[in-house]
Design brief:
The complex is a heterotrimer of chains A (288), B (725) and C (152).
Chain A lengths: L8 E3 L4 H10 L4 E3 L5 H6 L7 E4 L9 E4 L2 E5 L4 H6 L1 H6 L1 H7 L5 H4 L4 H7 L7 H6 L3 E6 L2 E6 H4 E3 L2 E2 L6 E8 L7 E8 L7 E11 L5 E9 L6 E2 L1 H7 L6 H9 L1 H4 L10 H17 L4
Parallel strand pairs in A: 1-3, 2-3
Antiparallel strand pairs in A: 4-5, 5-10, 6-7, 6-10, 8-9, 11-12, 12-13, 13-14
Helix pairs in contact in A: 10-11, 11-13
Chain B lengths: L11 H5 L15 E7 L5 E8 L9 E3 L24 E2 L5 E7 L2 H9 L1 E7 L12 E9 L2 H7 L2 E9 L11 E7 L2 E6 L4 H12 L6 E5 L12 H16 L3 E4 L2 H7 L6 E9 L5 E13 L5 H11 L8 E10 L13 H19 L3 H8 L19 H12 L1 H13 L5 E14 L5 H5 L2 E7 L4 E4 L9 H13 L6 E3 L18 H24 L6 H12 L4 E7 L8 E2 L4 E2 L4 E14 L5 E11 L6 H20 L5 E2 L2 E2 L18 E6 L21 H13 L10 H7 L2
Parallel strand pairs in B: 1-12, 10-11, 14-15, 18-19, 24-27
Antiparallel strand pairs in B: 1-5, 2-4, 2-6, 3-5, 7-15, 8-13, 9-10, 9-12, 13-14, 16-23, 17-18, 17-20, 21-22, 23-24, 25-26
Chain C lengths: L1 E5 L2 E5 L7 H8 L18 E4 L2 E4 L12 E3 L12 H9 L8 H13 L6 H7 L11 H14 L1
Parallel strand pairs in C: 1-5
Antiparallel strand pairs in C: 1-2, 3-4, 3-5
């Protein structure tokens, strides 16, 4: 353990307003929520001497608010709390399923939705579900508030589009206009629990009249520097009937929107083969 | 009667309540923290070592090779491994400079401020291209050419096994300090006398001025067999220079990257058989990667070589083996010690032979498997305690292997099914005790002390590292005496208190050392009978008897030394004869399922029958079998140290993946007892046996499921996907 | 100054606020039952209960525990009087080398106390964040289920 506690400056705001003020004064401070990512690096001695903005006391950001058009998740809501909430379980099951695959119980009790996004890992477990639910990240900063769609919150590996002094205050999940016909979340990891994903899928389908596809949203994580929506495949499928021909054609379009690599956990080849298999099975209705 | 009962683990209550003291729990007043500066090149000359002048070095103690009073050597088998690199480094993470400071974080910061410049030299990483051979063996039986000439079919195959990290949950940790002129070393270790021997040469002291004391140890599996000697040397150098206690507790990533691992291996088989599947000729080639220094490689190679032909009788055998040097961190002991690697090859090779002959591998195994009276490749006649067939048949029956093979064939033919299913089999033997003449060389001693207060204390250097040593010793001693196990305690393995019983390795703790404890206790029994008239019947009686036997001394010790059974003969020069006193045997059936979309493997059930001679404590024995099998499953499916430029780059628990509770199947364990006349109450060895068979059984099951034989481990989804047509 | 309740007792921590919870417990409060195995939040040996929920104490700066309730293995039984769960582990072989055991017990305890299901799959899922290298988990699961039955 190489962290040096004495070297750290800790800012402990008690309200959102205090947090923003402290952060404005110390823009190089590291925002800290549940700590399940930051503390790993700290234990390795990588963050000694830094200032830390401890957000854990900002109780306003711990709330889950159900409103008429959706659910507002405070940035500090944990993966465990998401799984326990009845409305989330009913209306946003893919996000609940994703949170159940984050680490294990100990990590789920501490890791937060805001922290997951701010950490911006290419393998962030909640991102494909948030992408297909078209969540907006509610950001607050010195210049006020803005709502950033999931498609715009990430700039690259471990990089968000947050600007100086900005913090995530909540994630808003809009209720879909129409309930999806079906939806699946699937994570392929390095083992059965506590696994980093090799590929990760979330998909929602809305069947229309006469078997014609009314809507489809498809997302993969861990296949690119950031989470991806399969815009090409989605555009192709909308308005068509799902059959072997259209499904195979859609699967071919996978590589238009993702760019997997070889890394310490898996290979590009495996990721592509398995992602295609998952996408195809989902479209065929065979993926549980 | 205590033997055969599930006496509760005696170290259990302390461990369960958080009161057991592992090294980092021990309060050592005034103790400083030691850290290690390690090589960042795999091979090179050290040009310079410089210390950032802006750092307060006067607060630290710094140690390099120059500070070593005796030999700069970690004494083991060959005298080739320096304690600290001096002028040249031969692997990444080799220790060069040691620093101690009162504050742990500052010590680590100090390590960052040491700059070492190297003149890189060309490294060798590929064991097939390595030209330095640490050790080689040749085993020959019969006439290989004649065997092949008579064969109806010849089947060849090459098999590769990777390294494996022991991944004990407690990292290596040692503290050292001097007290009244005695250098005391205490910590997480398996072999106090190995550490003592190493320290004598480093510090030019004899055993009266060095004392090694084991603390409660959080797992070893071989990873703390020899490595602690190096860590002890480091901690002691710092402590002596600092004039105060120093402890070194490794981080997980340091422990994984820098310390010993399982030897990676390449094994090639060329096998001649009759058309009905009888073995006529086995020509086997083994190459092991020893890493940069010899350490235990010669002995790992020996065990691997002696198990390479498998649990089968073949009249004509040749095994040629070698362990070579590469510029990687030295490999060392890990449960199985060379045997899991060679057994993987010979076992999986049956699947290739089965395809060639169109005879299933179970039938082939039944035809060739060791029975009572069989002869091994070294010419050893198996005269007693051969449970191979019983293990095989019980495993096959209980797992429903034969019907499942057919059922899964039908399942796999249906393209609509979401998975493939497979069931695979493997059988092995595992020699108990040291190889060849090793036990004679060790000349182990163990004993029992009766104190004048009526305490009965087992004296052995064997360490409790989770396997149940202390509980087993108490049970063995209890039945040897004819008294309750609760009357006995086991002395802490402390080189000033216990004799040298040899290392806690090689599946010898129960059979060899337990045997010594039993013999010593029988001497005590004879003394009770001769001098007190009977074995005491109650604790009060015991106190009276102790008074009589101790004759005014504070205690009386009964100690015995290992005696080789006269029927065991072994020739080191020709590598012929009785390689081990006896073998344990095991069979396993692994029942698994593979997702057709993702190629992920889920093991649904493991059935295993294991012949360990006698289960002194069945619950503890079962624990060893399930735990060892799980490590074997990890090696087969999940675990792979990935090396780049000679260093392990996935040296964290995040990226080196061991099984969780959701990755492990239900196990059915069947204990088979074929007693060994020379083992205490018939006991043989159990510690390593379970490690030998999950690997090939998984590979066989995957072949059954997918039709593809993958001759390497681990069977990751990536490899399974790639093997598909 | 940081105030927390540890095993029912009020405690004050006066050291650096970014000190890890595991270090505050082990060093400042001399509760060495909680162990460090990895520093990454993977092995779970450092598991303690924070307001009744299992967490990795190696990943929490003590300032985040200010005002909260901690339970460590020391709050369970003693060697002379083991808790039901600890007795289950002793009877069923749930501990071998013991280094994972305190964390394992805390997670199991939270699961049972929180009304967690007692079937094999539910217990294994609850314990998925606690790595054991010795037992292969089966005897741990048996220990938990046995203790749960005994508690009824």
């Amino acid at each position: 353990m190489r962290g040096d506690a004495k070297s750290m400056t800790v800012l402990s705001p008690r309200t959102a307003a205090e947090a923003l003020k402290s952060y404005a004064k110390a823009p190089h401070a590291l925002p800290l929520a549940g700590g399940t990512d930051l503390m790993v690096g700290w234990n390795m001695g990588q963050l000694n001497g830094r200032a830390v903005l401890d957000l854990s006391r900002v109780s306003e950001w711990r709330k889950i608010k159900v409103v008429s058009d959706g659910v507002d998740l405070g940035a500090l809501v944990t993966h465990a709390e998401i799984q326990a909430h009845p409305i989330l379980r009913k209306r946003f099951p893919l996000l609940v399923a994703a949170c159940a695959t984050v680490g294990a119980a100990q990590i789920q009790n501490r890791g937060t939705i805001g922290g997951n996004i701010a950490n911006a890992s290419p393998a962030g477990d909640t991102f494909p579900a948030l992408a297909v639910y078209e969540a907006t990240v509610r950001v607050v900063g010195p210049n006020g508030r803005r709502a950033v769609p999931m498609s715009e919150i990430f700039a690259g590996v471990k990089k968000t589009t947050l600007m100086k002094g900005e913090l995530i205050e909540a994630v808003f999940l809009p209720f879909p206009d129409k309930t999806p016909t079906r939806g699946v979340f699937r994570k392929v990891g390095t083992r059965a629990a506590q696994a980093i994903s090799k590929t990760m899928f979330a998909g929602l389908i809305w069947n229309g009249k006469d078997g014609v596809l009314e809507g489809v949203r498809l997302s993969f994580g861990s296949l690119a520097p950031t989470v991806r929506r399969l815009y090409a495949a989605e555009a192709f499928l909308k308005g068509r009937r799902l059959n072997d021909t259209t499904i195979n054609a859609a699967a071919e379009l996978l590589t238009n929107d993702v760019s997997p690599i070889d890394d310490i956990r898996s290979t590009r080849e495996y990721r592509l083969v398995v992602s295609r298999n998952i996408l195809t099975a989902f479209l065929k209705g065979e993926l549980k | 009667m205590s033997v055969g009962k599930n006496e509760p683990r005696r170290d259990g209550p302390a461990k369960l309540t958080g009161r057991a003291l592992y090294l980092d729990d021990v309060n050592i007043p005034g103790c400083w923290h030691g850290v290690t500066v390690r090589s960042t090149v795999p091979h090179g000359k050290i040009k310079s070592i410089s210390y950032d002048p802006s750092f307060p070095w006067d607060e630290c103690v710094i140690v390099t090779a120059k500070d070593i009073p005796g030999k700069n050597l970690v004494a083991l088998i060959e005298a080739d491994q320096p304690l600290l690199a001096d002028g040249i480094v031969r692997h990444r993470e080799e220790a060069i400079v040691l620093i101690a400071h009162a504050d742990r974080a500052t010590a680590y910061e100090a390590a960052k401020r040491v700059k070492i410049e190297y003149e890189p030299l060309p490294p060798v990483f590929d064991m097939e291209k390595a030209d330095k051979v640490f050790k080689s063996f040749l085993i020959q039986r019969g006439d290989l050419d004649a065997g092949f000439a008579d064969a109806d079919i010849v089947v060849e195959g090459e098999y590769r096994t990777p390294s494996q990290e022991q991944a004990y949950i407690e990292n290596n940790a040692i503290a050292a300090y001097e007290e009244d002129g005695v250098l005391i070393v205490t910590g997480s270790l398996q072999c106090p006398y190995y550490v003592l021997k190493a320290m004598k040469q480093i510090f030019n002291r004899d055993e009266s001025r060095i004392r090694i004391i084991q603390t409660v140890t959080g797992g070893g599996f071989g990873g703390k067999e020899e490595y602690p000697s190096m860590l002890a040397g480091h901690a002691a150098l710092l402590a002596l220079k600092a004039g105060r206690p120093v402890k070194i507790v490794y981080d997980r990533h340091e422990d994984m990257a820098a310390t010993t691992k399982r030897h990676p291996e390449i094994v090639r088989h060329r096998t001649g058989l009759t058309k009905d599947g009888r073995l006529l000729a086995q020509d086997i080639e083994v190459i092991m990667d020893g890493g940069a220094y010899a350490t235990l490689s010669a002995v790992v190679l020996s065990r691997g070589t002696l198990h390479a032909a498998g649990v089968y009788e073949c009249p004509n055998v040749r095994v040629r083996s070698k362990v070579v040097m590469t510029h990687t961190p030295p490999n060392g002991a890990f449960r199985g010690f060379g045997a899991p690697q060679t057994l993987f090859a010979v076992e999986l090779h049956w699947e290739r032979i089965a395809d060639a002959l169109h005879i299933d591998s179970l039938t082939l195994r039944r035809k060739n498997i060791f029975k009572l009276g069989s002869t091994t490749a070294t010419g050893q006649h198996l005269l007693e305690s051969v449970g191979a067939q019983e293990c095989l048949e019980k495993t096959v029956k209980s797992s429903q292997y034969v019907s499942k093979r057919k059922e899964y064939d039908r399942w796999n033919k249906n393209p609509k099914n979401p998975t493939w299913k497979g069931i695979g089999l493997s059988v092995c033997h595992h020699g108990a005790g040291f190889t060849g003449s090793g036990e004679v060389y060790l000349a182990s001693r163990a004993g029992i002390a009766l104190t004048s207060k009526g305490e009965l204390v087992v004296l052995a250097a064997s360490t409790e590292i989770g396997q149940g040593t202390n509980t087993m010793f108490a049970q063995v001693a209890a039945d040897a005496l004819g008294a309750p196990a609760s009357w006995f305690t086991v002395e802490t393995p402390d080189t000033h208190k216990v004799p040298d019983s040899g290392p806690t390795v090689a599946s010898r703790t129960c059979m060899v050392v337990g045997g010594l404890v039993s013999r010593a206790t029988k001497e005590l029994k004879r003394a009770f009978e001769a001098e007190y008239g009977r074995v005491p019947k109650t604790p009060a009686d015991l106190k009276k008897a102790a008074f009589v036997l101790c004759k005014g001394a504070p205690a009386r010790r009964f100690e015995v030394q290992y005696e080789k059974p006269p029927e065991v003969t072994w020739d080191d020069a020709t590598y012929r004869g009785d390689a081990y006193g006896v073998y344990s045997y095991a069979a396993i059936a692994v029942d698994l399922e593979i997702d057709r979309l993702t190629y992920e493997v889920r093991v649904n059930k493991v059935t295993t029958a294991q012949d360990i001679g006698k289960a002194i404590n069945p619950l503890l024995a079962e624990g060893q079998i399930i735990g060892g099998s799980t490590q074997g499953l990890g090696w087969a499916l999940l675990e792979e140290p990935i090396f780049k430029d000679g260093v392990m780059i996935n040296s964290t628990f995040t990226n080196y993946v061991i099984p969780t509770s959701l990755d492990t199947p239900p196990f059915e364990v069947i204990l088979v007892e074929k007693p060994y006349s020379r083992g205490p109450f018939g006991a043989k060895g159990v510690g390593e046996l379970p490690m030998d068979i999950p690997g090939p059984a998984v590979a066989a099951a995957v072949k059954h499921a997918t039709g593809r034989l993958i001759p390497t481990l681990p069977h990751t989804p990536e490899r399974i996907a790639k093997a598909q047509p | 100054m940081i105030k927390l309740t540890v095993n029912g007792k009020k405690k004050s921590f006066k050291g650096a606020p970014f000190t890890r919870l595991i270090d505050a417990l082990r060093e400042d409060f001399a509760l060495t039952g909680t162990k460090e195995g990895c520093g990454e939040g993977e092995c779970g040996a450092c598991t303690v209960l924070l307001d009744g929920k299992p967490v990795n104490s190696c990943l929490i700066p003590v300032i985040q525990a200010d005002g909260h309730r901690l339970e460590t293995v020391e709050s369970m039984g003693t060697p002379e009087k083991l808790s039901k769960l600890q007795s289950g582990f002793l009877a069923c072989g749930g501990a071998q080398c013991g280094i994972c055991t305190p964390g394992m017990l805390m997670t199991a305890h939270a699961h049972l106390k929180g009304g967690g299901k007692r079937d094999d799959k539910s217990v294994r899922t609850a314990l998925a964040g606690n790595l054991c290298r010795c037992t292969g988990y089966q005897d741990i699961v048996k220990s938990v289920i046995k203790a749960a039955k005994g508690a009824k």
